[in-house]
Amino acid sequence: MTRVQEQVDAIPGRGQGAAPLLEVRDLRVTFKSRGRRPVKAVDGVSLDVAPGATVGIVGESGSGKSVTSLAALGLLGKRGVEISGSVKFDGDDLLNMPEDELRAVRGKEIAMVFQDPMSSLNPVLTIGRQITEILERHRGLKGQDARDQAAELLLSVGIGDAVRRLKSFPHQLSGGMRQRVMIAMALACQPRLLIADEPTTALDVTISAQILELLRSLVVDSQTALVLITHDLGVVAGLCDQVHVMYSGRIVESAPRRALFANPQHPYTTGLLASVPRLDQPRGVPLLPIPGSPSDTLPWVDGCAFAPRCTRRVPESVGCPPALLPLEGSEPSHLVRCVNPVPEDHT
Amino acid sequence: MSLLEIRDLKVHFPIKKGILLERTVGHVRAVDGVDLSVEKGRTLGVVGESGCGKSTLGRAVLQLEPITEGSVVFDGTDLSTLGARDLRAMRERMQMVFQDPLASLDPRQSVASVLAEPLRTHGHKGDHGKRVRELLDLVGLPSTAANRYPHEFSGGQRQRVGIARAIALSPELIIADEPVSALDVSIQAQVVNLLEELQERLGLTYVVIAHDLAVVRHISDDIAVMYLGAVVEVAPSDGLYDDPLHPYTRSLLSAIPIPDPEVEDSRERILLRGDIPSAAAPPPGCRFHTRCPWRQPTRCHDEVPLLREPEGVVGHTVACHWAEQVRSGELQPITSEVSLMVDAAPSGVSATAAD
Asked: Which of A168, A181, B152, B329 is deepest in the core (most CB within 10 A)?
């Protein structure tokens, strides 16, 4: 075997000026339940998020993109979950932080927006109460001050008639408005990091465009770092500086967005791009699906997890797990985990 | 002649109030006057956002929803004139593929039983096992799949079973309601390709209902865009993208993200204000005028636009009073700073008025 097994992964997103705001190193999450094989949901993810950066994490269901963020914020619970590695936010280790300290960071310094706003909002409290609760807890605002601030937040996410809306219950709002409320809550404490997990997947196209535009302008205005988790390559194409593509618990390709779309190197990335019809391309271009399904994977210890579905599979794909490294002659910020990457002229 | 003709179809659902004496207090106009036709062997795509009535339209075509007004003519026969027995016989020729294959397949039935059921129901004699193997082969599943149960399959494979069930009776028309939206991105293309392949081999006619315009454009010959129960534009697939005429279609197209940073950075976005109004109380005049960036005073509010071919356009109909002016650029969209606003009311005014 020519490849050296000890090759260490390069760190995606590293070296963008200042010290990273979020530093994830070799994060591993294993779900264990009695009588079943343990499931490695996240299998050695390392990444850096610089202050003010917008980072996209792209993957299909089961790729570990959501679990990565949940584990990093200590939201997975303790039972049946084994987490290893390290997650540092501004130098503080989040994984070993006592729960009360962590709670002070979560919601204040780091905020999260989830996919389905209806199940993330409390149905029996008005949205005003839910926003002021955060302001009271983290910023010590009370009474009218908190209510004024809450109304201002609603205005900032594009909800007019804010004072009246504060008295609404979640079920009285439309899906797009609920997601705006979630974003308002996330921004209540001017967090330094916002994690948005499929923020527009449950929404209609025109509403989703509104929400993405909102996120885009908020990130630019407030210099908040954004981690956007999505399955839609189109969403990251317009929004994220750096994009990480995940497959089966690991990052398989990481690049600045322009480089990623202009010159995708991992067969999974090119496969994803070729399998979705594009509106701006002439009709009649046949779709090239990725064969098999995301469940046909190899454990990473045995080689490349994508190998069973890969059209560029070579004997070296199996046996030794490929490392995440820049290709020779390509940008150091463009990393790929593949022994037989897609050549530049391929696309 | 068209295989399927939908004429002025209306499906209104009553809104009931009260417990004992249920009074009808209004109607949800899910489908409100739709005219469409599909030629044999072609594919009509129906796109629109949630609540626009596209699924109700599909179900109403198969007489799965009570029709309030209008008619569905299949191969020359008005379906609403048929009795239960004749309708059942007719159903052999039109089948449906559902969105969520896990929800539409009985978890306690083996695949063989799922696929043989339509044959049994419609009184087909002979070797069902052979037909089941044929069907599995057609949709690209191994014959060993026959003895397995839905939960043993992945989402893409389950949808293949759903498609196999739909073609079991060799129908002519298949209505596919969001056939790929529940599937993973890398799997969607497999199912889209399968649908196209089956159309070629079996000469099927499709009505594909979906919210994903890119998928619909790929698979359809013609596309109908629906908004709030009505069709606002019908065009050949290429024409719709190259020359969208209705303001709603334009904003819909501009809202769909394209996986290419160069395109994303340079394209112009038409952001719509607010949400779709309620179908129980659609706006008067043009249904889209409350959100339309091109709306003009009084006419858009007062007069319902009809589907028509604008001047200089052939084979492409649109329901907009100002289609020509929007197309030529004579009318410009109103772009304002409040494009992110949900409510039309200026915030300052309402904030003081509310307390």
From this structure: A181
Size of interface A-B (CB pairs under 8 A): 174
pLDDT tens string for chain B (355 positions)?
Answer: 789 999 999 999 998 888 777 888 888 999 999 999 999 999 999 999 888 899 999 999 999 999 999 999 999 999 989 999 999 999 999 999 988 888 889 999 999 999 999 999 998 888 899 999 999 999 999 999 999 999 998 888 999 999 999 999 999 999 999 999 888 888 899 999 999 999 999 999 999 999 889 999 999 999 999 999 999 999 999 889 889 999 999 999 988 888 888 888 888 888 887 778 888 888 999 999 999 999 888 899 999 999 999 988 888 999 999 999 999 888 888 865 444 444 433 333 333 333 3
On whether both B196 and B272 belong to a single domain, the answer is no
Question: Is A280 in contact with B258 (Cβ distance < 8 A)?
Answer: yes
In a domain, B138, yes or no: yes
CA distance A50 to A21: 5
Question: Do B210 and B261 belong to one domain?
Answer: no
Asked whether the beta carbons of residue B155 and residue A277 sit closer than 8 angstroms, the reply is no
Q: How many domains would you assign to chain B?
A: 2
Question: H or E stretch including A43?
Answer: strand A39-49
Which residue among A160, A163, A258 sits closest to B355, beta carbon to beta carbon?
A163
Domain that includes residue B161, residue range: 40-59+83-224
B211 and B329 co-located in one domain = no
CB contact under 8 A, B188 and A204: no
| B193 plus B281 within the same structural domain | no
Round to whole Å and give the CA distance between A207 and A176. 6
Same domain membership, residue B195 and residue B50: yes
Q: Helices A175-187 and A205-222: crossing angle, nearest 10°? A: 10
Among chain A residues, the shortest Cα distance to B216 is held by A277
The alpha-carbon gap from A325 to the nearest alpha carbon of chain B, in Å, equals 23
Burial letters B66-77, b for 16+ CB under 10 A, else e:
ebbebebbbbee
Q: How far is CA B151 from CA A295, B155, B188, B192, in A?
A: 14, 9, 19, 22
3-class secondary-structure state, position B7: strand
